[in-house]
Amino acid sequence: MRQFLIAGNWKMNLGPAESKAFFTDMSALTNDVGTKAEVLVCAPFVSLSTALEAAASVKGFQVGAQNLHFENNGAYTGETSASMLKELGCQYVIVGHSERREYFGETDEIVGKKVAKALQEGLTPILCVGEVLAERKSGEQNKVVETQLKGALDGLSADQIAKTVIAYEPVWAIGTGEVASPDQAQEMHKFIRAVLAELADENVAASVRVLYGGSMKPDNAEELLGQPDVDGGLIGGASMKADSLFKIVEIANKLT
């Protein structure tokens, strides 16, 4: 059975002081309870050191980054390399988030280079894929997701693909209050496994964790996490407060 991964994406929120306060609150909630699920928060770059230090006192929590550059070093002002993240203590990094694609022009080729570099440096990439509303309405969601998966993973070995986490983002459900129905989430997650089987094999497709990344909250988490091919969540707003993230972790623990 695949272990649930509950991953928070703080985006451009929670500076160092707020990050420290978050983990103080989370420690009070979790340390007497523990967690069967794997729990991760991906903090802004300026908060990573503080978050990593604070998370050390919270059982079962890890800290990851929200982005990386695909080069080792060089004249790339404002960028951060995989090796820097690894040295800092990160184990995960989000790659190809819909906001990176939309606002910063990241193509499938760029996302693929970032996935490969993360794997080379021993980081686990959380590869984001998903369709916008117009693509969903026109019935092109499978084609879009397949193109993104192949663009990022083609050329990798089955062993490398097995070390990747996929996050399905129905972009039309992010920050809009809309949520894909459990059936829609399950349908897409199952399709993603079919593409992974084509790129690698059935065993890899069955082992890779596929997260739901479209406005998961405490009040919808149980239905979503109860789907057979949903292995956790990439969570935005609900991950920024300890109590709401803790409620989702509790639900994952119950379903484990």
CATH topology: TIM Barrel
CATH superfamily name? Aldolase class I
Largest sheet data: 4 strands, parallel
- By secondary-structure content and strand pairing, the structural class works out as alpha/beta
Mean pLDDT: 95
Helical residue percent band = 40-55%
Unreliable residue stretches = none
Order of helices and strands: EHEHEHEHHEHHHEHHEHEH
Shape: globular
Question: What is the number of E strands?
Answer: 8
In CATH, what is the class? Alpha Beta
- Named CATH architecture: Alpha-Beta Barrel
Strand content: 5-15%
Strand sequence of the main sheet, in spatial order? 3-2-1-8
Question: Compute the gyration radius: what is it?
Answer: 17 Å
Into how many domains do the coordinates divide?
A: 1
Query: Termini separation (Å)?
Result: 9 Å
Count of helices? 12
Question: How would you characterize the overall build of this protein?
Answer:
This protein has one domain: TIM Barrel (Alpha-Beta Barrel), CATH 3.20.20.70. It has a four-stranded parallel β-sheet with strand order 3-2-1-8. α2 links the parallel β2 (38-42) and β3 (61-64). The protein has 256 residues and is α/β, with parallel strands linked by helices. 45% of the residues lie in helices and 14% in strands.
Task: Give the arrangement of secondary structure elements.
Elements: E1 5-9, H1 16-30, E2 38-42, H2 48-55, E3 61-64, H3 82-88, E4 92-95, H4 98-104, H5 108-120, E5 124-129, H6 133-137, H7 141-153, H8 158-162, E6 165-168, H9 182-199, H10 202-207, E7 210-212, H11 221-225, E8 232-235, H12 242-255
Parallel strand pairs: 1-2, 1-8, 2-3, 4-5, 5-6, 6-7
